[in-house]
Specification:
This protein is an alpha+beta fold and 41 residues long. The protein has one domain. The protein contains 1 helix and 2 strands. It has a two-stranded antiparallel ribbon. Strand 1 and strand 2 form a beta hairpin. The radius of gyration is 13 Å and the shape is globular. The two termini are 17 Å apart.
Length: 41
C-alpha cells in the first residue's frame, strides 16, 4: 500500500518482511501505478 501526499510517496513496510530488508540493503525502488477505473478522484 502506498500514498502520495504533497509530492511524497509513502509506502507501508513492516520489520521482518523481505520488502523492508531489500529496501534497507538497496534503497532504490520502482513504483508501478495502475488505474482500474476511468474515474480518478
Amino acid at each position: 500500500m502506498y500514498a502520495v501526499r504533497e509530492g511524497l510517496v509513502r509506502i507501508s513496510v513492516t520489520d521482518g518482511r523481505a520488502k523492508t530488508a531489500n529496501l534497507r540493503r538497496d534503497p532504490r525502488l520502482a513504483l508501478r501505478e495502475s488505474v482500474k477505473s476511468a474515474e480518478v478522484v
